[in-house]
Amino acid sequence: MRILFVTDYLPYPPVSGDTIRVYNLIRRISKHCEVALLALFASQGDAGSISHMLEFCRRVEVINHEWPDPLTCIPDMIRYILTGKPLELRLLYSQKMADKIYQLTSNEEFDIVQIEHSRLALYRESINPNSRSKSVLVFHNIAFDQYDRIYNIEKNLVSRLRTWLFSRQLRYWEPSYAEKFNCCLTVSEADKRILLQANPRLSVDVIPNGTDVKKYKLLEANQNSPVLLFVGSMGYLPCADGAVYFCRQVLPFIRETISDIQVWIVGADPSSDVKQLASESIHVTGFVEDILPYYKQAAVSIVPLRAGGGTRLKILEAMALGRPIVSTSIGCEGLNVVDGQHLLIADNPKEFAEKTIRLLKDNALYQLVVTEARKFVVSGYDWDVIAHRLMSKYSELTQKATLG
Fold it and tell me: Quick one: pLDDT at residue 84?
C-alpha cells in the first residue's frame, strides 16, 4: 500500500503535538507501507530532518513556502470571500505545493492521500482527478471550535477581531468542505461529535493521539520534590495563557502552604508574557533538546489550559513517565479519564491549587494516580496500537474502492 502524507511542517524533530503524532505514525506505518511525505514549510535544519525521515519514507519533499504579504493577496481574498473560503487559508496557499501534489498523484498511484489539518484541506483540489487515491483529512483539532476558544482569551483587539472572523468563516466552511474527502479522522470522540453535529453527512472515524510506552518508562517517584512542570509550545496562545493564568492566579494559593514551590515552564518560543514570568522560583526554559531531565526533577505535571482543541499528547507523556497531573477540564478533554483516578481536574484557581497540594502531600493518592494513569496509556494510547487502527482504516477504504 502507498501512502502520501501532506503536512505543513516536517515532523522531525517531533517537538509539538501534531509533529509528534505524524512522526510516530509514519515510523510505524512505514514498516508495512510505502510512505511519501510532502511538507509545505521549510525551516532551519531541514537537511538533517529530511535525512532522518528518509529512514522511514521512500520520498521526502519540502516546498519552501513563504508567508505572502496580505496586501498582495487582496484580489485572491475577494475571491475567497465570494466562494465562502476563510481568508486566512489564502496565506497557506502555494502554487508550488499544489503543482507538486498534482505531479505526485499523476506519476504514482497512491492508495491514500492523507492531509494533516483542515487548514491544508484546500490541497485536496490538487490531487489528480484521474487518480484512484482515497483522500483522508485529519483533524488534529476542530479549528472552528479551537478559534472560538482562542477568541475568549485573546487580549489584543485587532487579533481578537481577526480570530472572531476566522472562527465564523471556519464554522461554515470546515465541516462543509470536509465532505470532499473519503474519510475524516479526529483524535477524540468529543471532536467527532462536534464535527458530526456540524455536518451529519461526513464519514468520521477516531484515531486518537498516543505516546511511546516503550520509550517512556516509569521514572522513580519524586513526590517530595516541590517542583511543578508545565510542558507545551509556549508561542501558542492557549499554552502561553495557561502559563500566565497558573503563575498569577493559582501559584499564590499554593505558596500559602508550600512556600518553596518551584515551577518549570518548558517549551519552544515563549511569548513575551511568559518570559516576564521568570523569577527565582519560576523557570522559563524555551526549547529543550531532551524533556526527560525536567520530568525527573518534577513531582507533578500541570496542564492549566483555558483554550485549545484536540487532545494533549503531553498528558499522555506525563502519564507514561509516572508524573501525576492536575489539569483543567479543557486541558484533558477528549481523553476518557476519571477525575481522582487517572489525574485530578480543577477549573478555578483555588481548586487547582488545592488539588496540586493534595498530590504533593498525600502519598497514597499520588501512587494511585501514577499507577492508574500508566495503566490507562498502556492499554489504550500506545502508538503501536494506534498505528494498527489507522492501517485497518486504510484497508477498509481501499477495499471499498476495489469492491466499487
Answer: 84
**H helix intervals, 40-188:** 46-53, 74-82, 95-107, 143-153, 157-177
User: H or E element: which one contains 192?
Assistant: helix 189-198
What separation in angstroms does the CA of 61 have from each of 36, 94, 341?
A: 8, 14, 44
Residue 24 lies in domain: 2-210+383-403
Per-residue pLDDT, averaged over 338-346, amounts to 97
Same domain, 205 and 233: no
Identify whether the C-beta of residue 282 lies closer than 8 Å to the C-beta of residue 270: no
Distance, CA of 217 to CA of 374 (rounded, Å): 9
The per-residue DSSP string of 332-355 comes to TTTS---BTTTBEE--SHHHHHHH
Contact 361, 258 (CB under 8 A): no
Residue 14: pLDDT band by 50, 70, 90 thresholds?
confident
281's grid cell: 522560583
- Residue 324 domain-assigned? yes
108: which residues sit within 8 A by CB, 6+ positions away? 2, 4, 36
256 shares a domain with 282? yes
Render pLDDT for 281-311 as a digit per residue (tens, 0 to 9). 999 999 998 999 999 999 999 999 999 776 6
| Cell numbers representing residue 363 in the block | 502519598
Q: Are strands 34-39 and 282-286 parallel, antiparallel or unpaired?
A: unpaired
Task: Give how far Cα 83 sits from Cα of 80, 86, 278, Å.
Answer: 5, 9, 47
Residues 298 and 178 in one domain: no
What is the C-alpha separation between 258 and 77, in angstroms, rounded? Answer: 54
User: How far apart, in whole angstroms, are the C-alpha atoms of residue 237 and residue 325?
Assistant: 21
Instruction: Confirm if 327 and 343 have CB atoms less than 8 A apart.
Output: yes
For residue 38, give the CATH number of its domain: 3.40.50.2000
Mean pLDDT of 201-210: 96
